[in-house]
Every structure is written in C-alpha cells, then in structure tokens.
Write a structure and sequence with these properties.
The protein has five helices and 14 strands. Helix content is 20%, strand content 41%.
Amino acid sequence: MRIRIDHATRYDYASPARFIIQSLRLTPSSNEGQQVRDWRLETDVDARLRRSEDAFGNIVHTLYTERSASALTIRVTGEVATANTGGLVRGIREKLAPQVFLRNTPMTAPDRGLSAFASKAAGKGGVLDRAHSLMAAIRDRINYDAGFYEAARPAAEAFARGHGVCQDHAQIFIACARRLGIPARYVSGHLCRTDGQVDQEASHAWAEAYIEDLGWVGFDAANGVCPDEAYVRVAVGLDALGAAPIRGTSYGGGAETLSVRLSVRRMQQAQAQQQRMGWS
C-alpha cells in the first residue's frame, strides 16, 4: 500500500514568544514493513532544524527559532510504501536490549487493580498467546472514546476510568505486559483507516512486545489487531511521553493554543482529490 500523510501542528501564542525549542519525532525510518519514498518537514518561521538519532533509534529533529514569533506551524508531508508483515518488526537496527523495555515509568507503572487485571487477562500458554489474550481483554475492557483526547495520562488512571483513546490502550498494554515480564514499548505513528475517513484528529499509537524467537511484534489494543500494511511506524519509547511527536517549550508568549490538521490516505485517494481540485 502507498500511503500519503499530511500533518500540520500550529501553536498560537498570546504574545510573541521570544524563543521556542521543540523536539520533533515526526520522521519515520524504513524497514521491512515500510519504505519511506518521500518525506519533508517544514516550518513557517525562521528556525534551525538539527537532525539526530535518539537512544531508541528514532529520527529526531530539534527546532530552534531564530527570532520571536506569535505563531508556529510545523508541517510534515510524505509518502510511505507499506507491506503486511503480520505485526512482526523486521529490518531495524535495535540499539537497546529488550530488557530495557521492562522498566516502568510513572506513565506505565501498574497499580493493584491493573496488576490483577494483567494476571487474569493474559491467561495461560506461550508468551505470544498471552500477549494476544491481553490485547483482546484490553479492547473489551477499555471503551474507545474519541472525545476523551487530552494530554497523556498514566495507564493506571486510564484503566480506572474505563475509557480513553489509542494512547491509553497502548500504555495499559505496556503496563500489563511488563507486569507479566514481557518487554513492551510504545509506538507512535499513523493509521490509514479502512472506512475511507482520511481526516483525523491525532496520530495513532500502539504497542510492541518482545517475543522470544520472533522479536518485536506490534499489538494495537484500540483496534484489537496486529499492525498491517495500513500502519506507518514513526517512533518508539518507554511510554507516550518518550515517543511523543512533538515536545518542547517556549520562552515568553503567555498562553498558547494548539491545533492539529492530519490526513492519512492511500495514494489513489490523494491523486483523485488532486484531480477533483484541478491540481496537476
């Protein structure tokens, strides 16, 4: 599948911000399941962008503004060719041992209720079977609520509420998996929906668990499936904060307002839209 992504994040400041610095995890890498054909990252202000790679192997661009700004838009556009690998993550140079992803963070630390759920939900059997059972149980237990999107919250809190968005499903899976001794990590990326809906409110999130003899395997508890060719994998981390598409701060500027525009579509859809609008 060929997927086109257009993603714009805009910050509006109550007064001009003297200096802005952002860490951008917005650029995917190629692997056996996806080949990045074209990718551009742009801003609408005078800024420096420094590309690097973090400890998890993610491509990171650090943005520094050159002068004060009353607004900032960060936009990425690109095309990725994807293939269905059955959820297996292959062709990636892993920088860290799987055991690193047994470490809990404040966002993934399980409380008593989440620990009890993990033990019951995973059932018995091999590690792969237990991970699948866990994914199915989380999907049944946590109602997806698109109107409940807010800043990342701890897995235990989301579990207690019983509803949330994909980042909550992912962090609950991670907390439970680590409680069971299964290395797990958070993944941020994009999902090309099968219902034809191309405009989305936010990027997608899922989890990966390390299975002996298989390696890393993706589990999307929000949808109850392992990632296939409809998924574009961008960044990984110990939790939602570590793999966040954009994190940073501004000096001055007062209150800020954030707005996001995101479209994820098959290339055939993108080409058809361009023809309708008279684009070449």
